[in-house]
Amino acid sequence: MSISKPFDVGNVTFDVQVPKFKTDAPTPVDLRTFAMVPVWAIVDPNLGHAAFRVLAAMCLFANKRTRITFVGQERLARELGITQPSISLQIKKLREAGYIQYGRRPSSAYNQAYVIPLKAPEGPSCPNDTDE
Question: Whose CB has fewer CB within 10 Å in the chain, the N or C terminal residue?
Answer without folding.
Answer: C
